[in-house]
Amino acid sequence: MRSWLVIGLLGWFFGVASLQAGEVAITRVATELRGDTLYVDADARLELFAAQREALESGVPLTFAWEFVIEQERDWLWAREVASQTIRARIEYHALSRLYRLVWPESEESAIFTSLVSALEALTQLRNVALGPASDFPAHGTYRGRARLRLLLDTLPLPMRPRAYFSERWALTSEWYLWAF
Fold first, then answer.
1. Residues 164 and 156 sit within 8 Å (Cβ to Cβ)
2. Cβ of 19: how many Cβ atoms within 10 Å?
3. Number of structural domains the chain divides into
4. 137, 148, 134, 151: which is closest to 47 by C-alpha?
5. Is residue 8 part of a domain?
6. How far apart are CA 48 and CA 20, in angstroms?
7. Which residues partner with 62 through β-bridges?
8. Residue 104 falls inside a structural domain
């Protein structure tokens, strides 16, 4: 009897842990001034909750947003926002072909992947994103940047939104990643 209780408790613990498996975190951001444009590269770690994977495999596209804000530090006033940009990406699953499609709506680019892991990897490795012209970033200034990656709940189908807004299993937003340059 005692061993069944221990097994039951362990099963419950690991079952709860699997429900809370979703997470998103920015792991690296780097800026580089090339020519007359400031570019950013960013990496993140993203793991979907079971509810999000299930919705995706049922044909519900998931839209994520990379958000970048660049501020210039000032001595006696608050920081001045120099540039901000939001880059959206949508992951779709096509059940008939069993393929995942990653779409970048602003640039109208897309890529096809055979696994969700590959699609998420492409989403979380952002490269050569132009943040603004070099003239917006004078050489004598000190700048700090903020970046985050989040799931956009307002792009879900209308019947799913109320449940997603009030469920922790749908809250996929990273903390702001801060860096200076």
1. yes
2. 13
3. 1
4. 151
5. no
6. 9
7. 91
8. yes
Tell me the two tokens of residue 80: 């001045």
Closest by CA to 175, choosing from 24, 39, 50, is: 24
Supply the pTM of this predicted model: 0.83
Please report whether residue 153 resides in a domain. Answer: yes
SS3 (DSSP) at 137: coil
Phi and psi dihedrals of 70, rounded to 5? -115, 130
Say if 5 falls within a structural domain. no
DSSP character for 75? Answer: S
pLDDT tens, position by position, 127-164: 999 998 988 887 777 899 999 999 999 999 999 999 99
Please give the residue range of the domain that contains residue 69.
Answer: 22-180
Which among 129, 134, 143 is positioned nearest to 67, based on CA atoms?
129
Name the DSSP class of 135: G
Which of 79, 88, 70 minimizes the C-alpha distance to 134? 70
- CA 133 to mean position of chain CA atoms: 25
For 33-51, give one letter per residue: b (16+ CB within 10 A) or e: eeeebbbbebbbebebbeb
Provide mean pLDDT across the span 55-81.
91
For residue 22, the SS3 value is coil
- The secondary structure of residue 136, as a DSSP letter, is G
